[in-house]
UniProtKB/TrEMBL annotation:
Name under which the protein is recorded: Uncharacterized conserved protein YndB, AHSA1/START domain
Activator of Hsp90 ATPase homologue 1/2-like C-terminal domain: residues covered: 23-167
Assigned protein family: Belongs to the AHA1 family.
A Pfam match: AHSA1
């Protein structure tokens, strides 16, 4: 697998597994997921920024954020906001983060009409590089298909490309 190649597969019709190698040490890659000053630089697809990013990085803590499209070239998406809320379950630094990911509103109220997901991020040390494995479990195949139809795979590919670029800047 090349460094920039994102591998994806679906297991049991409702679990999306994503894998990618990053040319950076595990401690640094892990740090990118816990500190708002780093998340603001790379979270979200191309053309989207993170104007709101409140992180309480601990089991039981939350991350409330807003992604906003700042790229006029994205037409109808320009100016659109997408709010999310993460509730951290378990953190083993620098090896693993588990959390529930929800769509929310600006006040942090969970949008029950949208699928939530159970996410496990695993950070594997590979002699100065890091393999990141993201396992995202949905309540049903329909819920997984709904987010896939929203362009989630393209979005995460662009997001992780932005992470790779940010890692180059901070190394």
């Amino acid at each position: 697998m090349s460094i920039n190649e994102l591998k994806s597969r679906v297991e049991n019709d409702r679990v999306l597994v994503l894998e990618r190698n990053f040319d950076a040490p595990r401690d640094l890659v892990f740090k990118m997921f816990k500190e708002p000053e780093h998340l603001r630089h790379w979270w979200g697809p191309n053309g989207w920024e993170l104007p709101v990013c409140h992180v309480d990085f601990r089991p039981g803590g939350t991350w409330h954020f807003c992604m906003k499209c700042m790229d006029q070239g994205q037409g109808e998406y320009y100016g659109m906001e997408s709010w999310g809320k993460v509730v951290y379950k378990d953190i083993i630094e620098p090896e693993m983060i588990t959390y529930t990911d929800y769509f929310s509103d600006a006040d942090g109220n969970i949008d029950e009409t949208m699928p939530s997901s159970e996410i496990t991020l695993e950070f594997i040390d590979m002699d100065g590089m890091t393999k990141l494995i993201n396992r995202t479990e949905y309540e049903s195949a329909e819920a997984l298909n709904k987010v896939m139809d929203m362009g989630m795979l393209q979005g995460i590919t662009e997001t992780w490309n932005r992470l790779e670029e940010h890692l180059k800047e901070v190394k």
